Amino acid sequence: MQLTNKTILITGASDGMGKATALECAKAGATVIIHGKTQPKLELLYDKIVDAGYPEPVIYPLDFEKMTPEDCDTLNDVIHKEFGKLDGLFNNAGWLGASTPAQLYDTKLWHRVMQINLNATFMLTKACIPLLNKANASSILFNIDNKNTAYWGAYGVSKAGLRSFMEILSDELESSTINVSGLIPGAVKTSFRTRAFPAEDTSGLTSPDEVAKAAAYLLSDDGKTINGESTHGKIFDLKEVISAL
């Protein structure tokens, strides 16, 4: 798997799966645009990538909760001026919200989760499609969660919406050169999850590095097919992708 001369935007790259995927893509030769809302964490990741001798990344801090379509257009302009195209987009950023019964869920908090997980991802993807069309063969990868868990209503609904968006987008881009797919990482050992489930036994959880290998593969030219079948419009469990590597 090679990502040489490719430019890949990774959202939620400050930590966890996004951070690991940025490192994996850079290791494979990509210039990664690392997004997050925490500048110091992005700077630490930048240093780690540069110190490893990988292509110099680009830091782009942006708060999804406050993001507007105009912010996305600005990002589009920056990428276009710097690179002229975009080869891959990993829609990874997300937020759990709160564990609360639906009848008690705070409405403002509900809207925040929808903004971060669904609305912001839509706006960013929409803005990036023209750049992705400029590449010979580009990819959009969605971090998907297929479980609807009681008390995590806002998160579950936002992720269900994201899955529908991914499926609709894949149909709409069927005749384009943009490959659209989804990855279900499952339970991953991240600080994100630890905060949500502090008493959980983490010994059986998947590592972010394993997710990163699968994500980088699906963002590569090799990842356009798995076992001879197109990956466009499909959603994969992590094990399916790992077994194909």
Automatic annotation (TrEMBL):
Gene3D superfamilies (UniProt xref): NAD(P)-binding Rossmann-like Domain (3.40.50.720)
Keyword annotations: Oxidoreductase
InterPro entries, sorted: NAD(P)-bd_dom_sf, SDR_fam
Keyword Oxidoreductase: yes
A Pfam entry, by short name: adh_short
One MF annotation (Gene Ontology) recorded for this entry: oxidoreductase activity
Record family assignment: Belongs to the short-chain dehydrogenases/reductases (SDR) family.
Family annotation (PANTHER family): ALCOHOL DEHYDROGENASE
Name of the protein in its database record: Uncharacterized protein
Species this chain originates from: hydrothermal vent metagenome
